[in-house]
Amino acid sequence: MVDVAREAGVALRTVSRVVNQDSTVGPELVQRVRTAIATLGYRPDERARHLRLGVTGTLGAAVRQLSHVNPVLRAVERAARAADLMVLAASTEDDETLERHVVESMCRRRFDGIVLEPIGDDHGYLVPELEAGLSLVAVDRPVLGLDVDCVLSDNRSGIETAYRHLVRHGHDRIAYIGDDERIYTARERARAFRECVTAHGGTLDTMLHTGQVESGRIREAVRAALGGPAPATAIVTGNAQLSVEVLRHLGTDAVDVALIGFDDSELATLLRPDLTVIAQDTDAIGSTAIDMLRARIADPATEVRQVTVPVELIVRGSGEVPPGP
Amino acid sequence: MVDVAREAGVALRTVSRVVNQDSTVGPELVQRVRTAIATLGYRPDERARHLRLGVTGTLGAAVRQLSHVNPVLRAVERAARAADLMVLAASTEDDETLERHVVESMCRRRFDGIVLEPIGDDHGYLVPELEAGLSLVAVDRPVLGLDVDCVLSDNRSGIETAYRHLVRHGHDRIAYIGDDERIYTARERARAFRECVTAHGGTLDTMLHTGQVESGRIREAVRAALGGPAPATAIVTGNAQLSVEVLRHLGTDAVDVALIGFDDSELATLLRPDLTVIAQDTDAIGSTAIDMLRARIADPATEVRQVTVPVELIVRGSGEVPPGP
DNA sequence: ACCTTTCGAGATAACGTTATCTCAGCTTGG
DNA sequence: CCAAGCTGAGATAACGTTATCTCGAAAGGT
After folding, report:
1. Model confidence at B325, in pLDDT bands (50, 70, 90)?
2. Cis peptide preceding B27, ω within 30 of 0
3. Closest C-alpha to B149, from B317, B263, B302, B5
């Protein structure tokens, strides 16, 4: 910049003014500076700019896996772009240590705010950052033990809706195959399922299967649910990945068992019959997250909010298969 | 930092030394500084650090869609992490304007290097950045018209392998349904397919269908390929998304037509029969990209390289269906 | 003609780091 | 016992921006 100033024969400050489209600089000098910038190949350095300004115009997104389907992240990017903020994302790989590493890096880089898919139960490392003024919003799962903005899906009523839907279609023996209950969403959904079964006067015995998404476990879960003296006639799955695994192991039985999957996905309409799902409103989640984050950045004293976004039952066929004999 | 220094009763430089684990500071002062840091809640500011140091320890990844399955990006993150570099990613949404915006933002932030999935044919905006010392590596597609490091899959031999495989299984009428040929990979694959057909003395008539991935178009393509006086007995698809669409429209005919998909995916083993695919070596692509980028960052005079990574035929059943009567 | 306002542009001081230089106080070897 | 080396720590100057203050000159009002 100082070189540009010398080349154009103006003061440093004037170059800054031209770069920032300040109107208080005469057209002739503007031209001189412009050509100097071009000949010297000057590119402004945002690091210095951000240092001086205090803000970076950047939001961080720390998500489980960048390279996985994540419609919430897409909505987050869109909403941020609309607000002229850049989103830079990194994966936490479902690893608490890595999450901490990523979030702390973003803090040291002084991102204006962070959208986080929190992992695990201990987020104590966030306390000093929050005290130091970090703006944070959690999506998909809350930050347990900390009073932080968050946007969640209505997991419980999603499961309840699925359950009621199956009951209405005549099912009595309904199984749930879910993710590891150490994960918040899995815990919520499993809990809701238990309550549904109890409320309908049923028993859980072979009807509830949660644990890691691992092919062998899913195979056993499917076998247990469909075997025995009183086999399930319907299955609810805990997330999109589990729907895939369950379908894989159902094989040709898939047409005889009613199935409702949590999460909509591309393959839902690829199958015969098409997959009935509980769909999350990912667009709403993403844009709400950005709204809340912007509000907090604008005024750190904003009251902490926990927003729950409704889910929707999408009827496609697999959930309407009647119970067998 | 100056507050910490005052609190600890030491010089500014000493705080910096403690923060950076410099050994030339006495244990007593280290302790004093540590407690001062804790009581004041001091967090180092990487913006200033990077400004002073010149490097940022950060790589940018500009990819089509963060929130889509992208195993190359995963490999890129892994490899960068192993080299103690942080990857921050952003979506270009397959939009040339947005790509430029994203890349230029990363340049102004002085990222040490950028991994780019280039879009479109005009990357002129990169020229001044490259002259100013930008380290860039293109993945999946080359940067046309510019001499830039890149890592590509061997698209042509992938198509050739698929074609030969089908011929070996007795097919004679083989159709190709591909993506829009404005996209580099789609162009390469379609071209290779044309050459295969010509080399085998066939004609293209209803055998080649390229264009945007749009449900209606795919339906027509499938219908055209399988209809008429000499219907195709086998189909090769141009990417994973197209495999899904083609399967969707094949419906129950799926078992009678041999199918080989470009790109492996989760659903390949979900179907009956399982999907035979041409799989890209995404791990190799990602780690090679990071290797090349690191080499260029270390020495900007490194010779520009274009690396082609082999693809692999994975036989699963759908590609081994014999031709019908 | 003189005072006041307005406007364009320069000087200087931050922003929060680290590198370089300096220096005082020790050791150490002859 | 002193010069030479080492060692721990401070002073100062960058890195590349922008905000604030200042100032000269032109314009406008009485």
Report:
1. low
2. no
3. B302
A 247-276 near B (Cβ less than 8 A): 247-248, 251-252, 266-267, 269-270, 272
Contact B67 A50 (CB under 8 A): no
Cβ <8 Å between A70 and B67? yes
Is the C-beta atom of B53 closer than 7 angstroms to strand D?
no
Average of per-residue pLDDT values in chain B: 93
What phi and psi values does residue B208 have, to the nearest 5 degrees? -120, 125
For the stretch A23-54, pLDDT in tens is 888 888 888 999 999 999 999 999 999 999 99
Q: Which of the following CATH numbers is that of domain A55-152+282-309: 3.90.650.10, 3.30.390.30, 3.40.50.2300, 2.30.140.10?
A: 3.40.50.2300
Mean pLDDT over A276-290 rounds to: 97
- Contact flag B109-A43 (C-beta cutoff 8 Å): no
* Protein-proximal positions, strand C, CB < 7 A: 7-20
Q: Could you give the CA distance from residue A83 to residue A86 in angstroms, rounded to a whole number?
A: 9
Contact A43 B74 (CB under 8 A): no
- Was domain A2-44 assigned CATH 1.10.260.40? yes
- All residues of chain B having their beta carbon less than 8 Å from the beta carbon of residue A105 are 46, 86
A155-281+313-320 has CATH 3.40.50.2300 classification:
yes
3-class DSSP state of A152: strand
Contacts of A269 in chain B (CB under 8 A): 248
Out of B46, B102, B128, the one facing A109 most closely (by C-beta) is B46
The residue lying closest to nucleotide D6, measuring its CA against C1', is B24
Helix-strand-coil split of chain B, %, nearest 5: 45, 20, 35
> B45, A70: Cβ pair inside 8 Å?
no
Give B43's pLDDT tier (boundaries 50, 70, 90): very high
- pLDDT of B202 > 70? The answer is yes
Residue ranges of domains in chain A: 2-44, 55-152+282-309, 155-281+313-320
Asked whether strand D has any atom less than 7 Å from the CB of A306, the reply is no
What H or E segment, with its residue span, contains residue A113? strand A113-116
Specify the CATH architecture of the domain B56-152+282-308: 3-Layer(aba) Sandwich (3.40)
